[in-house]
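Re: that backbone. Tokens:
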């Protein structure tokens, strides 16, 4: 199944911050005590509260990019993602996995600036594919709230406002690349039991799909399989047509980062099965027609320093220091 097209909608043009493509390489970390990234469902109540509070704190910090007035550091993440999706520079090519690995790390660092001391956490949609709406990530108190509602006012017919949970009053600035302030929105895809399809397109990240993804032993086959489905299925299943997880500004929804931390975990597990050959496995053709190399630059458009792929291939080396629980 191919769901990637559902999350790569056309973005409207906005003025881009200067992207000079110059990179200051980070100093290599000595990774002797890596942080452990946890499953949200297994985190303590205190850990969940701390994470949620830090996300809310990002909405009080001024934008680093200052593209539009009254924007926040939280808005910057949706903006950068949308701008790098049109034209495609971070999807549908080899850099998809290392770029999003770096993006999650930039987000984690931003949470630390808000007092959070833990690591990024993930939503284990692999184990919850049959009934994803029952996941602890949607808890209205210690989670991210539930689905959007047609009855909620203020968003208009194009969006479904989230009406419960700690992020119900979140007002992202960007929608599909344009300046369009709105309430946080979700549009869960309904299940179709008669066709064997769970809600949120759960069969797009069920055992059969995951077995197929993990059957690939070379990066140039593994990364597109992971990106299309399950990755794309989760975006489409949660965001639908009227939710923030669907358009290119999907980081508007804080669940984006738990989703992409899980994508990163699947990649990490694939690397761990053959670390000698897979840790720095990076090959394929970029969207500009050039062969991908470990020296490829990963733009962040001023949100953080541009990165180099090589520095983000090993989670216990280069610029990183973490493992998964």
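Recovered sequence:
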């Amino acid at each position: 199944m191919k769901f990637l097209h559902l999350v790569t909608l056309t973005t409207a043009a906005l003025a881009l911050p200067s992207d000079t493509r110059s990179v200051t390489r980070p100093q290599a970390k000595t990774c002797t005590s890596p942080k452990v990234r946890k499953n949200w469902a297994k985190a303590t109540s205190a850990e969940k509260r701390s994470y949620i509070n830090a996300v809310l704190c990002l909405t009080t910090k001024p934008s680093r990019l200052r593209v539009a007035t009254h924007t926040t550091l939280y808005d910057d993440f949706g903006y950068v993602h949308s701008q790098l999706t049109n034209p495609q520079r971070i999807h549908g090519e080899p850099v998809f996995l290392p770029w999003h690995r770096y993006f999650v790390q930039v987000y984690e660092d931003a949470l630390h600036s808000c007092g959070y001391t833990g690591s990024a956490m993930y939503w284990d949609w692999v184990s919850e594919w049959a009934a994803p709406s029952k996941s602890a990530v949607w808890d209205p108190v210690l989670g991210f709230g539930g689905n959007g509602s047609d009855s909620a006012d203020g968003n208009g017919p194009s969006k479904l406002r989230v009406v419960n949970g700690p992020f119900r009053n979140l007002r992202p600035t960007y929608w599909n690349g344009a300046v369009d302030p709105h309430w946080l929105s979700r549009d869960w895809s309904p299940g179709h039991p008669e066709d064997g399809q769970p809600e949120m397109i759960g069969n797009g990240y069920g055992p059969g799909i995951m077995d197929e993804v993990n059957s690939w032993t070379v990066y140039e086959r593994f990364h597109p399989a992971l990106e299309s489905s399950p990755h794309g299925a989760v975006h489409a299943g949660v965001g639908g047509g009227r939710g923030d997880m669907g358009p290119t500004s999907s980081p508007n929804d804080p669940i984006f980062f738990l989703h992409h931390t899980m994508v990163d975990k699947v990649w990490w597990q694939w690397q761990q099965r053959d670390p000698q050959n897979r840790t720095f496995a990076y090959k394929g053709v970029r969207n500009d027609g050039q062969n991908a190399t470990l020296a490829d630059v990963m733009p962040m458009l001023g949100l953080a320093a541009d990165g180099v792929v090589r520095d983000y291939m090993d989670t216990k080396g280069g610029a990183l220091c973490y493992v998964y629980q």
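The first helix runs from residue 45 to 58. Residues 1-21 have pLDDT under 50 and may be disordered.
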